[in-house]
Write a structure and sequence with these properties.
By secondary structure, the chain is α+β, with helices and mostly antiparallel strands. It contains six helices and four strands; from the N terminus they run H-H-E-H-H-E-H-E-H-E. Helix 2 crosses helix 5. This is Nitroreductase. Keywords: Flavoprotein, FMN, Oxidoreductase. Belongs to the nitroreductase family.
């Protein structure tokens, strides 16, 4: 049984303290599948996912993410890479500089929502040295590190809901 998608969007929060319980492979596969279902410009799907469970590799990634401890604390980290050349072939520079990033961001959000639906915590990490993350996972030079998603069961207790602007504060309807 999974949570309603609207509940996932409303209730999910970044988790930085994780239990060390393994994520079942079937659940991990479902999370990656959800990422693959994300929309992408021209349906090019310019993403690649490095699923990192190795402690040594997670430590190397954490070091180049300005020592963000949740990377080592999480049982799994997924490095989401974009392939700008794939988008460039069809859309030129705008594809390489923007569309592939939008596409991988959509995949990252799908991953977070799927994890929450399965009651698995997550944390989106965006502060890192791209080149060094790429080297840590031994990715080919053509791929660009866009996001790292930490996954695991939350070890955090009783957090308040997240504050959000009201729709009227961030919306203008043009008739």
């Amino acid at each position: 049984m999974t949570k309603d998608i609207f509940a996932c969007m409303r209730e999910s929060q970044a988790v930085r303290t994780f239990k060390q319980d393994d994520i079942p492979e079937a659940d991990l596969t479902r999370i990656i599948e959800a990422a693959c279902w994300a929309p992408s410009a021209g349906n090019l799907q310019p993403w690649y996912f490095y699923v990192v469970k190795n402690e040594r590799v997670k430590a190397a990634i954490a070091e180049v993410c300005f020592e963000q401890e949740q990377i080592e604390a999480a049982p799994v980290c997924v490095v989401i890479m974009a392939d700008p050349a794939k988008s460039n072939d069809q859309y030129g520079e705008r594809g390489a500089q923007l569309y592939c990033l939008q596409d991988t961001a959509a995949a990252a959000e799908n991953m977070i929502l799927a994890a929450d639906a399965l009651e698995i915590g997550s944390c989106w990490v965006g502060a890192f040295d791209e080149r060094k993350v790429q080297q840590a996972v031994e990715a080919p030079p053509r791929l660009r590190a866009v996001a790292i998603i930490c996954l695991g069961y939350s070890n955090e207790q009783g957090r308040d809901g997240k504050e959000r602007y009201r729709v009227a504060e961030v919306t203008k309807i043009i008739h």
